[in-house]
Amino acid sequence: MKAEIIAVGTEILLGQITNTNATFLSEQLASLGIDVYFHAVVGDNQQRLEAMLSIADTRSDIIVLCGGLGPTEDDLTKEAVANHVGENLVEDAPAMEQVLQYHVVSQRPMAENNRKQGMIIEHGIPMPNPAGLAVGCFYQSADKTYILLPGPPAELKAMFLQETAPLLQSHFPVSEMLTSRVMRFIGIGESQLVTDIADILNEQTNPTVAPYAKTSEVTLRLTAKSENGTTAAVLLDEVEERIMRRVGQYFYGYGEENTIENEVVSLLQAHQRSVTCAESLTAGLCQSTLAKVPGVSNVFKGGFVTYSAETKQQFLGIPAELIAEYGTVSPECAEAMAVYARNKLKTDYALAFTGVAGPDELEGQPAGTVWIGIAGPSGSYARRMIASRDREYIRISAVKYGLNFLRQQLLIDHQK
User: Fold this and answer.
1) How many domains does the chain have?
2) Is the pLDDT of residue 416 over 80?
3) Where are the alpha helices (DSSP H) in 46-182?
4) Do 139 and 287 share a domain, yes or no?
5) How far is CA 413 from CA 301, 372, 376, in A?
6) What is the domain range of residue 52?
7) What's the CATH code of the domain at 158?
8) Which ranges carry the MoaB/Mog domain (predicted)?
9) Does the pLDDT value for residue 37 go beyond 90?
């Protein structure tokens, strides 16, 4: 089966939002053995959407539309698809009741156009919305399948996983399944990683290996085609072992949604250790990044933003003589920041950042020069990181590298 994903929304064309739904849907459809051949984006215009549907009909078996199921005048996906397939829109009683009850419970007046959210294409299968109000629709003509999903990612994901995927599995059973595994690496660029595993990439058949570059890290997606999950796991394990022999020192975890901060917090929680941060050029970014992880309050007590030489002395107590002798952009300063921060809050570990975010030099050091200090039970030290590009890239890279250094130290200390 060949599938096509059509994102509906003028805001996507204008660049006001990122089309993350297409990534999610492609991954999910591939896992069901359905190949996605085309991605398309069309604005909130019924004529243009119907023209896009006509094109999709010529090249795809399954056409997935996301967005345009809301109550406003520019939400036209249901109308466009219904007109395209020659059907009417009809009320789905359970969906309409959900819309009515929402307004009763929230004590909000219900406008007449809210009823659109409870309508589906006649002869289609309604897909309840577990995270919102707009009902989805699974409609099949003689030779095409149209799937209408809401635009908000939380609603789309919940509906697809709970409603759409089971329908696709029942209507299009496959003898083979696709199983993917995502490996994540920090400290190596995409070009170097690809060079180090070039023969694996060139020889790939099943499983396939695809590299993807992200900010200061690289992911590899390993995908195996097999009749069952057990066979797929064996195939994936074999190619992963080959990859790890080449670049295993840069590997930090698995998963599309996983992050280096997740890994660090998990290790801190598992070993019952705590951490604090002292930040200069990153200005609280490391602490903000850690705070994204649920449960971080168990291991993170708080930290310091010491953006100037004066605050490094006032907040942390670093001697003025040390800064006068070595400067703020130095391994000595970074290490001292970590040591004094750890002592101040009495944590097991401390992570410190100082450097030059740019664009101008500082203390004779070029933009992109970063020193990362670590203090812990086994001592303290500082590491240098050199980054390029703009200020934001340098700051984000510093945080990722610093967290990875901390992850590595946690593993070393746990093995002692």
Assistant:
1) 3
2) no
3) 46-57, 77-85, 93-106, 153-159, 165-171
4) no
5) 21, 18, 9
6) 2-171
7) 3.40.980.10
8) 4-170
9) yes
pLDDT in tens, 279-337: 999 999 999 999 999 999 999 999 999 999 999 999 999 999 999 999 999 999 999 99
First to last CA, the chain: 54
Helix (H) / strand (E) containing 218:
strand 217-226
The verdict on pTM exceeding 0.90 is no
% of residues, the chain, pLDDT over 90: 85
User: Residue 357's domain is classified under what CATH number?
Assistant: 3.90.950.20
237 shares its domain with 272: no
Note the residue count of the chain.
Answer: 416
Q: What letter does residue 354 receive in the DSSP assignment?
A: E
- Share above pLDDT 70 across residues of the chain, in percent, rounded to a whole number: 100
To the nearest 10°, report the CA torsion of 6, 12, 17, 23: 20
β-pair type (217-226, 208-214):
antiparallel
Domain boundary among 187, 220, 254: 254
Q: Are residues 202 and 250 in the same domain?
A: yes
